[in-house]
């Protein structure tokens, strides 16, 4: 407890120095920050993964009127740091080496090496810090209790349901009542420069909203398959509508890929299931078909001059990205620096970065970094298949497909939380299976031996 209090004071002093460096009003902010950090150190550990995710969803750090260097230290990063420290200080924490941990550790070592040799070490260090905290938070949550994972899942579902409703209201009003005034004051404002209105909610850019709602739709569908009730169906419909209102074609494609994967896996694993599952599969397929049809028929953005201009600009971005990847395929320019390298290459384009997360990763960390990161993802997917975590696998697949269409992985550092939570659900997505695993693990070995002996006596 003494060590935790020392850490609270240290974090408080560091936070005060950070605030003082940007010239903000200290008194009220520092007192509030100390109160929040103290709460994080004394709150039940099972709450922290959910608080980390909630702080990412509700606080659009990159789109607030703060300086760019301050925006890198998001509330999700602070909560993740506290979660990591408490997990490391827990005497019961025991790490067992496995293939997923080894591949992730090797990738972390590689990005640390490339951070030192980066073209901009300060910026690369900030992205690397976010990724390390993400990895530590993922490991801590994935090895914690079933209750922590279930709280995280319920937190995601509740926030997604509320935010989907807010997104529908925002689309009806064509204005973001709560967050647009803040977005207008940001250094990189989120403005409606598109042919149709695209919702921004509390997450900021419509593309990030599309990824979040597509992943959320798959989570609601998982609830629908586990236990059919109105809340899950309404959540899936609201999230699919929110994906439509973002106007993101990449997010729609990722949603359809995730739904197709989910239907395929369930139809393979549950061939003998009753009519209830077949009905749910039909609902899911119908939901995807209607979403696709409504987007291409009812959206005014598809086929518009603005959409054609965006497509042309993205194609140019891809071409420049491929050239940069070929030039830096061995070691890369440094973690988090792909967009800056592209802007130096194309001096007239100051805002658009490399419009693909996988191209970003190749440019910044080289082919070794891309291979190590891909190996980590593949191992996680194989574990999900082996453990029959179909819904977690589909959610992670939605993230991977959606990230391929825009600069998510490096440009939006706080959004690394989405990847971490998707990996957690990929490993531990089924509450029923988790309960069985925990109950089996809690049976003492001596009791198992006695039961075995009794069975042997009865057979004789």
Automatic annotation (TrEMBL):
InterPro entries: O-antigen_ligase-rel_domated, WaaL-like. One of its GO terms (molecular function) is ligase activity. The chain crosses the membrane at residues 6-29, 36-59, 71-88, 95-113, 125-143, 155-179, 199-221, 228-245, 251-268, 280-298, 358-384, 391-409, 415-437. It holds the Pfam family Wzy_C. Its main location: membrane. Keywords: Ligase, Membrane, Transmembrane, Transmembrane helix. It is a multi-pass membrane protein. It comes from the Bacteria. It is found in: Membrane. The keyword Transferase does not apply. Residues 235-373 form the O-antigen ligase-related domain. This is O-antigen ligase family protein. It comes from Actinomycetospora aurantiaca.
């Amino acid at each position: 407890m003494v060590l935790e209090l020392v850490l609270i004071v240290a974090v408080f002093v560091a936070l005060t120095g950070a605030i003082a460096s940007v010239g903000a009003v200290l008194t009220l902010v520092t007192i509030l920050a100390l109160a929040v950090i103290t709460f994080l150190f004394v709150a039940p550990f099972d709450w922290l993964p959910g608080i980390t995710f909630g702080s990412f969803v509700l606080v659009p750090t990159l789109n607030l009127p703060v300086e760019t260097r301050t925006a890198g230290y998001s509330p999700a990063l602070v909560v993740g740091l506290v979660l990591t420290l408490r997990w490391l200080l827990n005497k019961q924490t025991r790490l067992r080496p496995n293939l997923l941990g080894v591949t992730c550790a090797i990738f972390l070592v590689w990005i640390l090496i490339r951070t030192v040799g980066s073209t901009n070490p300060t910026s690369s260090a900030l992205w690397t810090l976010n990724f390390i905290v993400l990895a530590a938070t993922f490991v801590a949550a994935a090895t914690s209790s079933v209750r922590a994972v279930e709280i995280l899942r319920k937190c995601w579902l509740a926030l997604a349901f509320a935010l989907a409703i807010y997104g529908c209201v925002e689309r009806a009003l064509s204005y973001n009542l709560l967050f647009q005034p803040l977005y207008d004051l940001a250094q990189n404002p989120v403005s409606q420069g598109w042919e149709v209105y695209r919702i921004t909610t509390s997450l900021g850019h419509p593309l990030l909203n599309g990824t979040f709602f597509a992943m959320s739709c798959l989570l609601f569908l998982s609830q629908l398959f586990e236990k059919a009730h109105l809340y899950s169906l309404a959540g899936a419909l609201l999230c699919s509508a929110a994906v439509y209102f973002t106007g993101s074609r990449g997010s729609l494609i990722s949603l359809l890929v995730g739904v197709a994967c989910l239907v395929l896996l369930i139809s393979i694993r549950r061939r003998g299931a009753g009519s209830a599952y077949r009905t749910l599969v039909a609902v899911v397929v119908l939901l995807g078909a209607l979403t696709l049809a409504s987007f291409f028929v009812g959206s005014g953005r598809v086929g518009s001059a603005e959409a054609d201009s965006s497509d042309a600009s993205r194609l140019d971005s891809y071409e420049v990205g491929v050239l940069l990847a070929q030039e830096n395929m061995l070691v890369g320019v440094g973690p988090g620096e792909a967009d800056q390298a592209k802007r130096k290459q194309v001096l007239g384009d100051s805002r658009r970065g490399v419009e693909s997360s996988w191209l970003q990763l190749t440019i910044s960390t080289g082919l070794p970094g891309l291979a190590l990161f891909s190996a980590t993802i593949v191992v996680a997917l194989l574990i999900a298949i082996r453990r029959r975590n179909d819904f977690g696998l589909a959610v992670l697949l939605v993230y991977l497909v959606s990230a391929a269409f825009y600069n998510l992985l490096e440009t939006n550092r706080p959004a690394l939380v989405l990847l971490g939570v998707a990996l957690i659900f990929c490993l531990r997505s089924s509450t029923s299976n988790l309960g069985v695993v925990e109950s089996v693990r809690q049976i003492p070995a001596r009791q198992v031996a006695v039961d075995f002996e009794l069975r042997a006596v009865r057979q004789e």
